[in-house]
Structures are given as C-alpha cells and as structure tokens.
TrEMBL record:
SUPFAM superfamilies: TPR-like. InterPro entries: TPR-like_helical_dom_sf, TPR_rpt. The keyword DNA damage does not apply. Keywords: Membrane, TPR repeat, Transmembrane, Transmembrane helix. The keyword Transmembrane applies. TPR repeats lie at residues 208-241. The chain crosses the membrane at residues 21-41, 53-70. This is Uncharacterized protein. It comes from the Bacteria.
Length: 297
C-alpha cells in the first residue's frame, strides 16, 4: 500500500515537472536574452567567463521551474493527478503521456464552461488514441456525453452515456442524465421506465430526487395535472422538499390555479429552493402566460 501511494505521488511530481519545464525554458530564454542585451549595452568590451554564463542560465531555469511547479501544485491542491473531479476520474489518465495531457486540457475547458471546445478535445482523444484503457474510454465517453447534454444534443449524449456504461463507468447521477436525455428526445416511456427502476431500488443514493425529476419531465410536456401528482407525492414524502414545492407551484399555475400556485411559490422560496432566481423567472413566465390567456378570454 505504501509503495503504491509512493508511486502515485512520484508520478504526480513528475507530471508537474513535465508541465512546468516548457514554461521554465521560455522564461529562462527570456531572462538570458535580457541579460545578454544588458551586458552588450552596459559593457560592450567585457567578456564573461563561460562558467558564469552557464551558472546564470542554470539559475534562470531552476528558479522559474520551482515557481511554475509550485503554481501547478497550488492549482491541484489535494488532488493526486487532476485539477478537477479527481475522485470521479479515478485511475484514468494518470500517466505522464500525451493522452493524459490532452484529457487534462479538455477537462480544463469543460470546467471553464467552454463545452464546444472541450467536446472537440474529448472527441479527438477518443478517435486518435488507440492505447486508452477501458477505464479511460469510459471516463472520456462520460465527459463527451456531458458536453453533448449541456449543449442540448441529447441523441448524441445518450450514445456517449451508454458507451461510458459499457466501459464500466458509473456514477449515481448517470441514470438520471440518461433519463433526462430520453425525455428531451421525446422518448417519455423510456425515461419513465428508467425513473421507475430507480424508484424501486432501495440502495439508490438519489431516490429522493426521482419524483421531482418525473414532475419536471411532465412540466416540460405541459402536462400540469400529471406533473402535480408527482410533486404532491414528493411533498408528502418530504423528498427534495423545496424543489417539490416549486414544481407544484408551476404545475398549479399551469392548471390556472393562480392562488394555489402563488402560495406554493412563496413556500418554495422560504424553504430555499435551488437556483431561486432561475425558478422565479420560470414561475413568472408561466404565470404571465396564464394571466394573458385569462385576459384574452
């Protein structure tokens, strides 16, 4: 166990060194050029011993190398290899090689919200790298799926998520992501089947979110009555309580029950619903559309 941990730590340090060397070389070249220029201007006739020049160049390389390595370590904090999602990625892409470097670039783009370019990096990696392990293929396909999902290309997202599963990748949120994509693709029955399977699993970590997920699916289909049924069940069970109240508020408003919707809306805010700003915007849009319909009648 100790030797395994030592090997992982050694690989991590080597990774930091390799990432820092190009930056240190660039800084060294810049400092050396500046020093030579200064010497030529201030003392054009004097000559420096070769040993002094070599020592200066060494110092100009070593000091930036230490600084850049320290910067890398601060970025990664307690993570062994990856700046983000270290526990999720596990032992994938931990080598000192091209594929790990490319994956890290994609991961950085993904967490900076540049999903299109991240998708391009992950896709190129999957197409070009023939020596990826099964675990790495699963991780890479998952991140491709997340990019497609966020970009609302849900048919492609489902394919990638299912490829990730086929390669042994799994996190508890993954079935929910797949169900959401099926729903967005218009396959409500497929999505419902996945949700029902999750509801009967006693060991499922996010079982308290499923009824709200189903309610959200029916809200997007403008089926307020069915959505309300699932949200009311969640409220009764105190599952994802604030979100259930918020969903019920929107469903009641869709059904033209303005007063009931307003009361539930206020309860949702009092119970600290997630993304209260986005929820309020959505609720007000639905309410305005219903009131406009009333006025036109």
């Amino acid at each position: 166990m100790f030797l395994q941990l030592l090997a992982r730590r050694t690989r991590r340090v080597m990774t930091f060194i390799i990432r820092s060397v190009p930056k240190a070389l660039a800084a060294s070249a810049l400092f050396t050029a500046a020093f030579c220029t200064y010497k030529m201007i201030s003392a054009p006739e004097s000559t420096e011993p070769v040993s002094d020049i070599l020592m200066y160049m060494s110092v100009c390389f070593v000091l930036p190398l230490i600084a850049f390595m320290a910067d890398e370590m601060l970025k990664y904090k307690t993570s062994l290899f990856h700046k983000y999602d270290d526990e999720l990625i596990g032992n994938a892409f931990t080598g000192i090689n091209h594929k790990s470097s490319v994956f890290e670039k994609g991961l950085e783009l993904f967490h900076n919200g540049d999903f299109r370019n991240a998708l391009e990096v992950f896709t190129d990696l999957g197409n070009e790298e023939k020596n990826m392990t099964v675990e790495e293929k699963g991780v890479n396909e998952f991140y491709r799926g997340r990019c497609y999902h966020i970009l609302e290309a849900c048919p492609n997202a489902v394919i990638c998520y299912e490829n990730a599963l086929a390669n042994g990748f799994y996190i508890p949120e993954l079935p929910i992501f797949i169900a959401r994509c099926h729903a967005q693709n218009g396959y409500t029955e497929k999505a419902m089947k996945l949700y029902e399977d999750l509801l009967i699993r006693k060991d499922y970590q996010y079982s308290n979110r499923i009824r709200c997920e189903i309610g959200d699916m029916y809200l997007k289909l403008n089926e307020g009555k069915t959505a309300l049924k699932w949200f009311e069940e969640a409220i009764e069970r105190r599952e994802s309580y604030a979100n259930a109240l918020g969903g019920a508020a929107i469903a009641q408003t869709m059904l033209h029950n303005i007063k009931e919707g307003e009361a539930l809306y206020r309860q949702a805010l009092l119970n600290h619903i997630e993304d209260s700003i986005g929820f309020t915007r959505y609720y007000k849009e639905v309410q305005a559309a219903v009131l406009l319909e009333h006025n036109s009648d």
